[in-house]
Amino acid sequence: MSKVAREAYWVVIPAYNEAATVRDVAARARRRCPNVIVVDDASSDGTDQALAGLDVTVLRNEANRGKAGSLARGFEYALSRGAVGIITLDADGQHAPEEIPAFIERSQDDPSVFLIGARRRDQRRVSFWRYLANCIADFWIGWASGQAIEDSQSGFRLYPSTLLQDLKVPHGCDRSFVYESEILIEAARKGTVIKNVAVGVGRRSGSSPSHFRPLLDVVRITKMVAWKLVSRGMYPVGLYCLLRRRLGRAMPGRRCGDRMAVTLLRK
């Protein structure tokens, strides 16, 4: 991969109290992509200080904005500097920055594709309750988007700039994990192609707990998706497309998510 190609992409790493791991993650990401942004969400453990001397951009929120607000700030910064695509990954060490080139290479084939880093099912089953929560979210988001989303809660993604420049999704403190889910639905509504990139997942390296709360965050995601479905008459074509894809059968003569489905989504 050429240096010119890599410089067209930016990496955004939201971080909240990840002083133990953020430097290693950011340094490894920097070796795979020259443009790395860490958004420190008003951490109290010295997360920003842990990055001292590292050749990355550090944006610090003076007040906690949640993951959604941190991502939105990182997106705005990268887009203002001409990013073609923006890769996001978590700061806790679960995502391997060494897999960043796989996203960039796929994106170069078609810069408009939205790429999701899909973890293997056996890796997602480490925690039963988190896996169950993720499966519930996958189903609801898949229904609302009309696509079988393999790992809707994965934070390892590549967002095409063409999508982000035209996207209006709320990103308040209460939208942290709702934000990433809603982007998937809105992307599908706009006709954006969503594809998977197979990724691994490691154990959290730091001492801080996961910020994803299976009960509360799934309830919030479900409420958001339910409202989108109700506002579009429960979008039966979306459920049909999802079930057909889950069963592995193509629609005769066309595919779900084509012009018919996209047109219905936009209504």
Tell me what you see in this structure.
The chain has 267 residues and is α/β, with parallel strands linked by helices. The chain has one domain (3-266): Spore Coat Polysaccharide Biosynthesis Protein SpsA, Chain A (Alpha-Beta Complex), CATH 3.90.550.10. It has 11 helices and 7 strands. The protein has a 7-stranded mixed beta sheet with strand order 3-2-1-4-6-5-7, with helices on both faces. Helix 2 (22-32) links the parallel strand 1 and strand 2 (36-40). The longest helix is centred in the middle third of the chain and has 18 residues, at 128-145. The N and C termini lie far apart (41 Å).
Low-confidence stretches: 250-255, 257-267
Give the strand tally: 7
Largest sheet: 7 strands, mixed
Please tell me the CATH architecture by its name.
Answer: Alpha-Beta Complex
Shape: globular
How many domains is the backbone divided into? 1
Strand order of the largest sheet: 3-2-1-4-6-5-7
Topology:
Layout (H helix, E strand, L loop, with lengths): L2 H5 L1 E7 L6 H11 L3 E5 L16 E4 L5 H15 L4 E4 L11 H10 L4 E6 L1 H4 L3 H18 L11 E4 H4 L11 H14 L4 E6 L14 H18 L4 H11 L12 H8 L1
Parallel strand pairs: 1-2, 1-4, 2-3, 5-7
Antiparallel strand pairs: 4-6, 5-6
Helix pairs in contact: 3-8, 6-8, 6-9, 6-10, 8-9
